[in-house]
Amino acid sequence: LITAQVPRTNCEEHGVRRINVPWARAGSKFTLLFEQALLMLSREMPVKACAEFIGVTDKRIWRVIKHYVSRALLEMSLSELKAIGLDETASKRGHNYVTVFIDMDRTDKPVLFATPGKGKQTVKDFKAFLEDHQGKAENILEVVCDMSKAFLAATKVELPHANVTIDWFHVVQLFTTALDDVRKAERKLQHQPKELRWAILKNADGPLTEKQVEALAELETSDLHTGTAWHIKEKLRWIRKAETIRAAR
Known about the structure:
Nucleotidyltransferase, domain 5, 47% helix
């Protein structure tokens, strides 16, 4: 705790005023170093856990976070932004979504913008945010997203100069879901080793248990459609190794 008698002045126009101290920002009950510690901890753990660890209420920490985030947003310039990635995530259990936009050209992929929802309006909101921070919609040349029809349609309208790249994670997810659907359907007609489920969802050259290796070997010698679907899923990885667009196709 720092206790000090802060000098005051009596202004004829504004009344009694205290000077700003060098160790804390105006209006804050924390020192600048303590606020720095709060920001570092809240970046690594939930704010509630941070509050319990520090011994203050989470509302006080949120006030600090909101102050510095707001100040950083005011200083943000997006005039050089050319490539973005966007995806929705559930903020709570149920259907409460938040769409997050990141800078794809930065190695640390910083979050540029986040807004509630997951539809066309989120892209429209990002465009408004972009233009409020010295950015231009015509400067965005690449957008990385999933196969959401809402995202694709909104990108075409709001960011007309951008080429769309489908996020690889969602492509793989589509294939693995289809593969598992084939396995489930076939399991009702024919016995399968219980280890087969996780074996086919992993990469063939990845870390497999001995029983999973045996399950794959049994699958390859069978005439199951699951085996065909698994080979298609494994060949999908070749696309990333292709040296030309034609080879990838």
